[in-house]
Amino acid sequence: MSHRIYLLPLWLRAWHWTNAALILTLAVTGFSLHFSDPALPLVSFGTAARVHDIAGIALAMLYSLFVVANIVSGNWWQYVPKPPGILTRCLIQARYYCWGIFRGEDHPYPPTKEVNFNALQAVVYWFIMYFWMPVVVASGLMFQFPEFAPDRFFGFDGLLPVALVHTLGATVISLFAIAHIYLGTTGVTVTSLFKMMITGWHEGK
Length: 205
Ligand code: HEM
Known about the structure:
Elements: E1 3-6, H1 10-34, H2 45-73, H3 86-98, H4 119-144, E2 152-153, E3 156-157, H5 159-183, H6 192-199, E4 201-204
Antiparallel strand pairs: 1-4, 2-3
Protoporphyrin IX containing FE (HEM) binds at residues 8, 12, 16, 19-20, 23, 75, 78, 116, 121, 125, 128-129, 173, 177, 180-181, 183-184, 193-194, 196-197.
């Protein structure tokens, strides 16, 4: 028999989909800027630059709201990878995604109201939301306001490390998003986790 629990408040769902739309916009325009070819533009350079700048500022504001809302609501605690046995739980979860899921095994750590994320989700979400997101947002802001970037860096232009870190972080977040969407299909049905992200209700076995 299936059971349902209400897991995700409205603010979190609204944040999630606004964030996803902004990241998608930034990824497409950022890719277009990085591999710009005037003869074959994905998005024309001027439009890509303008849209990327505006979406970047919007993401910086949305990210600040996310941090504040997570502190105020206590949701930040979900993201903290908790010992003991964190490594073992991550390995059990990874084994499930690579093997058990294809043999019809049950989820080793189904979400509860108290513990929403399995260990692997906690580690990855924490790393993305509290390490790479601030790094990419801060380096993006330095590009828009270069007076905050270092003037020189080991003899190089100060914007060079900013560019490298920004591109690396953006690549990490884009690769995360691809794996994240695939793992979004691993609920009780292919669509149940996507529905949960819209309605807030988690569907379990
Ligand atoms: C079209 C793009 C996206 C889709 C379809 C999508 C889908 C989902 C789904 C189905 C879940 C619930 C399952 C789970 O917790 O693993 C989820 C949760 C989550 N997603 Fe996404 N996602 C997208 C983009 C992103 C991006 C770009 C980020 C961050 C950079 C992100 C961060 C998160 C976080 C942090 C959660 C957990 C929220 C919470 O419960 O506190 N998502 N997403």
